[in-house]
Amino acid sequence: MQSPEGTATTSGVGDLTFGPLVFQLPDLTLLGRPFSSRFSADITAPTGRYSATALVNVSNHVWSVDPYYAVTWLLTDKLETSVRLHYSWNSTNSDPGAGYEATTIQPGQSFHMNAGASYPVVPLLRAGVAGYVLQQTTDARAHGEPVAGSRERVAALGLGLMAIVAGAQILATAYREFAAENRPTGSVFLLSVLKPW
Q1: Is residue 11 part of a domain?
Q2: Which residue range(s) make up the domain with 65?
Q3: What are the DSSP calls for 114-144, one per residue?
Q4: Residue 54: which H helix or E strand, with range?
């Protein structure tokens, strides 16, 4: 199985992720400081635009199940650190691009985590450092068979800002990836807006 090569760009609304199960554990203390955690099972549906002839898609064209455990620990009254541990499973893509030379493909399962620490710069604005790691734990599959040597790995470090505006959290992060295996690396910029309903 070979990945397609070339240059392309795309835009649009990606796949929809929803969390049908969220379990917030009671707040505790760790070494005398506040500690909170939760468990969630996120599911991603292949709702984004997808074409087997495109080099780049906004949809993965698979269902994904991604349970995670998240913790936040207030080290001081202002300094916080958070970690989120994930394990991901993906269904089979039965319409892969011709460049894959396969009738079906399935991404391997993976462990991934992200972590960060932040400090308030001014009221309602926090700045910090963040990073993530991904390690694929099972081989990708083509035609239902494992593809040897297909496991991916990547790590990243970067900076982030979080602002509270009109009751919404606005998060901006910039990462530089490294230590990659079987995947490209580069700079990643993310902007998220979280608003409770």
Answers
A1: no
A2: 16-194
A3: EEEEEEEEETTEEEEEEEEEEEE-S--EETT
A4: none
Per the domain annotation, does 184 fall within a domain? Answer: yes
Quick: pLDDT tens for 19-72: 888 899 888 999 999 999 999 999 999 999 998 888 888 898 999 999 999 999
Residue type present at position 99: G
- Give the predicted TM-score (pTM) of the model: 0.82
HSE-CB for 166 with a 13 A CA cutoff: 3
In the chain, beta strands by DSSP E:
16-24, 28-30, 33-45, 64-74, 80-90, 105-106, 110-122, 125-136, 141-142, 145-146, 153-165, 168-181, 187-194
Measured CA to CA, the distance from residue 143 to residue 6 in angstroms comes to 24
Which neighbouring-strand residues pair with 175?
158, 188
Low-confidence residues of the chain: pLDDT under 70:
1-6
- For 61: left if phi > 0, alpha if psi spans -120 to 50, otherwise beta; the answer is left
CB of 30 closer than 8 Å to CB of 37: no
Reference 84, options 113, 53, 110, 60; nearest CA is 113
For the chain, how many structural domains are there in total?
A: 1
